Amino acid sequence: MDNLKNLRGTADLLPEQLIKWQNVEKILIQQLSRASIKEIRTPILEMTELFIRGIGEGTDVVSKEMYTFLDRGERSCTLRPEGTASVARALIQNGISSNPLQKLWYMGPMFRYERPQAGRQRQFHQLGVEFIGYDSVRSDIEIIVLAWDILEKLGIKELNLEINTLGDHLDRLNFQKSFLNWLKINKDSLDLDSQNRIDKNPLRILDSKNIQTKKVLENAPRLFEFLSDKSIKRYSELKKQLEALKIPYVENFNLVRGLDYYTHTAFEITSGALGSQSTVCGGGRYDNLIGQMGGPKTSAIGFAIGLERLILLAGKELEVPRNTDIYIINQGVTAELLATNLSRKLRDYDLLVELDLSGASFSKQFKKANKLKSKSIIVIGDDEAANKEFIIRLFDKASDENQEETISYENDIKLRKWLDNNLLLK
Length: 426
Ligand code: HAM
Known about the structure:
The chain is an alpha+beta fold. It has helices at residues 15-34, 48-55, 60-64, 84-93, 137-153, 169-186, 192-200, 211-217, 229-244, 289-292, 307-313, 333-347, 362-371, 382-386, 412-424, and strands spanning 38-39, 45-47, 67-70, 76-79, 102-111, 123-132, 159-165, 250-251, 263-271, 279-285, 300-306, 326-330, 353-355, 376-380, 389-394, 405-408. Helix content is 38%, strand content 21%. The longest helix has 20 residues, at 15-34. The radius of gyration is 28 Å and the shape is elongated.
C-alpha cells in the first residue's frame, strides 16, 4: 500500500518551523492586546449560505474556491474561506445591539481551493481584525495603522500600502451601469477570463492581471468619477490623515478586492520581498454586511494578514528557539521517581525543563544535555536518591565549584536561591 500523504495545498508544521510561527504569533497577540483588541473564535465549519450571502455568489471565492459538502444530516456546510462573514454572523446571533462597538481579532485556518504555489495554499492561516460599529475616518486610519505597525514590528521590509475607495452602494450601482455598457462594447478586446466575468462579477475585471486587458481598461469609465461628494470628501480625509501620520501610500483605482462586501475604503499591503503572491494584508470597510445579513445597520472595517506570507517575510531572528534551562539526568528506580517530582516543581518556576526518560547511561544523557545546549543540569543517581538529594550545576561552568550545589530534595529555599542566582534573575 502507498504511504498516505497530506492533501495538496495543505502543510504540516513541524516543531522546528513552529518556533518561528509561535514567536510571530506571540508578537501579533502582544500588539493586538496593547491596542485593546479582544479575541473572538468562531467555528471553522459554517452553513454554506453564510458565505454565499456574506461574500457574494459571483466572487471567485464562493463560486470556485469553497470546500463545500453535505453533512450526514444533508445540510450544506463549508470550511470557512475567510473570517469576516463568520464574525458578522456571530455578533448578530449573540446580540450586537447590547454591544454595538467592538474591536475584535481572530487567528486560525481558512480554506480556499486555489492553485497552490509559494505563499498560496488551500489550507492557510489568517490573522484578522474587525472594528465593528465604527464609521469615522479615524477608524479607517486606526485599522490601517495597526496593520502597518504589526508588519513593521515584525521587521518586514519593502512594504507598500495601496488604497482605493469603492464609494457607497449607490455610487457603485451608478458606476456598474456605465461600466457594464462599456464592457459590452469592448468585450472582444478583453481576455477570456475577464469576458466570463462580465455577467458574474464585472467589478473584478478591474483587478485583471492580463496585460492586454489592463491596457484596454485604461479607457474604461472610472469608479472615481461616480462617487458622491460625501464619498470623495471621506476619501480625501483618509489620504490627508495618512499623510499627517507619514504612512506612505499609493492610490490604485483598480483595487477592488475579491469579496463583495466592501464599501468606501479598500486597501492592501504588499511586500516587494515576496514573489508573485505579494499581498500580505488586505482589508477594507464593509458598512452594509451586517445589515444585509439580518442584523441592525452597522458600519465596520477590518483586515486580514496571511500568516504563511508573514512567516516567509519575517526575519531569521524569530527562528531562534528558547534553550532548555535545566536538563534532568537520572537513572535508577528511586532516582527516576524523584526526578519526575522535581521536574514538576521546577516547571512551576516557569523554567524550561527537560526530563530525560531514556534510562540510558549517564554519559549518553550528558551528551543529550550538551546537544540541547541546556543552561544547567541536575543529576540524580542511586547515591543521590539514597540521600534524598540531587546535584545541580550550570552546564558550561563545570569547573567552577560555586556553581555546583548538592541540594536536599526537601530544601526548597536552597533550590530557589540557586535558581535565582543562576537562572531566574540572570
Ligand atoms: P483576502 O484579501 O481574501 O481578505 O485575504 C487576506 C489575506 O489572506 C491575503 O492578503 C493573503 O495574505 C492571505 N490569503 C488569502 N488567500 C490565501 C491563500 N490561498 N494562501 C495563503 N494566503 C492567503 C479577506 O479574507 C478579508 N476577510 C479581509 C477583511 C477583514 N476585510 C475586512 N475585514
